[in-house]
Structures are given as C-alpha cells and as structure tokens.
Amino acid sequence: MNRFFTGWYKFVVLLLAASSCIAVAQPQAFPDRPITIIVPFGPGGGTDLLSRTIATKLGELNGWTVALDFKPGAGGAVGMAEAAKAPRTGYVMVMGATDNLSIAPWLQKSLNYDALKDVTPIAKVAESPIIFVTSESSPYKTLADVVQAARASPGKLTLGTAGTGSVSHLALVAFGNRANVSITHVPYKGAGPILADLLGGHIQFAAMAIPSALSLIKSGKVRALGVTSAARSSILPDVPTIAEQGYQGFKISVWYGLLVPTGVPAPVINRLNRDVNTVLEMPSVREVIQSQGAETDIGSPAAFATTIQSEYVKWRDIVRASGLSPE
User: Which CATH number goes with the domain that contains 205?
Assistant: First the structure.
C-alpha cells in the first residue's frame, strides 16, 4: 500500500511539474495591456487623422486600447528616434512616412536611428501623390505648356512648395530632371500662403498634397495639371498623372505605414499586420483615407520593407540631384 501511494505521489508531482513547464512555455496572449502609436508630427494634420482612424478601428475590432503619443519635430525624426529605442514588445508602434524614413537620412546629419535597421515594418497604410497646380487665369493649360515655357525661358517660371527639402520640393526636382527644365523653387510655410500667392499671380505654379488644393480645384479657381502617383487619384479621377503625359514610370508619393522597434517577435508582427490590414479593408476607413487624397495599401511586412528599401535609394538620388546638403 505504501509503495502504491509513494508511486502515485511521484506520478502526481511529475505531472504537475510537466504542466507547470507547459504553462511557462506558453506565451501570454498579445496584447494584454494598452498599445501606443507614436505620431511623429503635430496634432491636427493628416498623419494625426490617419493614426487616429487606425487606432480607433483597432479598438473596435478587438477591444484593444490604442492611444496616440505625439512626438513632433525635425520632420518626423524625433518621433521615429523615440520609437526605435522603445521596448521590443510590440506595445509601441510608430506611424512612419516618406519624410522620416526615406528623406531625413539624406538631409539630416545627426539622426538618432537607422531607418533600415532600427525599425521593422508592420504594414503600409496609405499612399498619396503630390499635385501640380496653377491658377485658373494662368495661360498654362497642360503640363506640356509648362515644359514648353520653361525650356523657352529657363528659371523664369516659379513654383511654390511647403519648404526646402519637402516632398513637394523634391517632386519638382525630380520632374525638372526628367523633363530637362529649370523652374525656380519658392519655399513657403504652409499651403495657405502658397495658394494666396498663386491666385494673386506672384508665382505661376504650386506643388502640394491634394487636400490642400482640393476645394479650389473643385471650385474652378485652381487648375490641376497632373498628379505624381502611378495611377490617377480616386478623388480627382479626371486629372492625368505625370506618367501618362509623356514621362513613363514617373512616380513620387507620400506614403505612411506602421513600424515597431527591431526585435519584436515575429508572431506579434504578424498579428499586428493581420489586424491593421483588416481595418484598412473597412469601407469607413477607406473613405477617410480617400478624403485625404490617398489610397489604402494592403500588404505584408515584407512588402512594406521592400518599399522602404527602394524608396530609400530613390530619395537619396533625388536629394543629391537637388544640390541640398545634410544639415
């Protein structure tokens, strides 16, 4: 009898030990606490709207708590640096963009992160083109008119953008190189002053994000000459792309996507990718994104990584062609 109980006791102890080991080996369900999305730009802009929409819908989809943490500064580099040094758990994401992943490395000497090594892609969220516009009273009806005039009088025509080194400025550089024309760049701070000077005849053209010019385009006060995306914008389907106006393959865009610090476990990355893509397929989310002149872009982490790597090289060449030096 004693041997029986002794044997039974040993069996129970071994069974409990094995169960304990299994329990320890099982990872905790993700997430088990709130998630933060770092927004590297100030509140009230397009990045805020995009991040807030994704955060809200992830909460509705899964019951998660997803909060925004605004870390503006240095063209989005401050927030990206903060994300790069966050714990590698998946509880901190960052809304990256063309500015802080593909342009900043070539324009800022002292970045506190490596755009290709210190952060890992989760999902590309949206992509938006730049639009070239002129005033309704302008004699330039098409992009071909602009090119013809610029070749006739190099440097005489002027084009306003949101600032030196901005995507819109570098889009002008890329187009000028492709079309072999010289158009004088005029930097501004904000779309309002650009459009005021455009309508006032102080500059001939402007390059900016679609939402900034949309109401004036629809009212007929501003004429759209072309968008820089590979395909026409769903919000302005009658405006041709630059590519289809004789510059095949021309594509400049502002893209956004979620990333985490490098080192986050693959199962967490895959879970976040799956749920973000589910959110992007929601009609209400597509509507919000398209209202900003952008399009959703559903894909894998690997696909987003490929985009970042190719854009990194492309913007290096554009920045070098602009003559700008890192500061």
Answer: 3.40.190.10
Structure tokens at 262: 């490098």
Secondary structure (DSSP) of 132-182:
EEEETT-S--SHHHHHHHHHHSTTTSEEEESSTTSHHHHHHHHHHHHHT--
Residue 240 burial (CB count, 10 A): 16
Name the DSSP letter for residue 121.
E
Enclosing domain of residue 161: 129-245
Question: What one-character-per-residue DSSP string does 10-56 give?
Answer: HHHHHHHHHHHHHHHHSPPPS-SS-EEEEESS-TTSHHHHHHHHHHH
Please state, in angstroms and rounded to a whole number, the distance separating the CA atoms of residues 249 and 11. 71
Q: Residues 218, 203: contact at Cβ < 8 Å?
A: no
Instruction: Specify whether 292 is located in the same domain as 220.
Output: no
Is the distance from CB of 205 to CB of 158 less than 8 angstroms? yes
Query: pLDDT tens for residues 60-116?
Result: 999 999 999 999 998 899 999 999 999 999 999 999 999 999 999 999 988 999 999
161: which strand partners? 187
Question: How many domains is the chain partitioned into structurally?
Answer: 2
Nearest to 319 by CA among 177, 133, 187: 177
The ranges of the chain with pLDDT < 50 are 1-2, 4-27
Question: What are 3-25's pLDDT values in tens digits?
Answer: 544 444 444 344 444 444 433 33
Last residue of a domain, one of 229, 245, 261: 245
Name the 3-class secondary structure at 190.
coil
Residue at 2 is within a domain: no
Phi, psi of 224 (to 5 degrees): -85, 130
Q: Are the CB atoms for 97 and 308 separated by under 8 Å?
A: no
Residue 289's CATH number: 3.40.190.150
Domain end residue (candidates: 212, 245, 278): 245
Pairing of strands 66-70, 35-39: parallel
Burial of 249 (0-12, 13-18, 19+ CB in 10 A): exposed
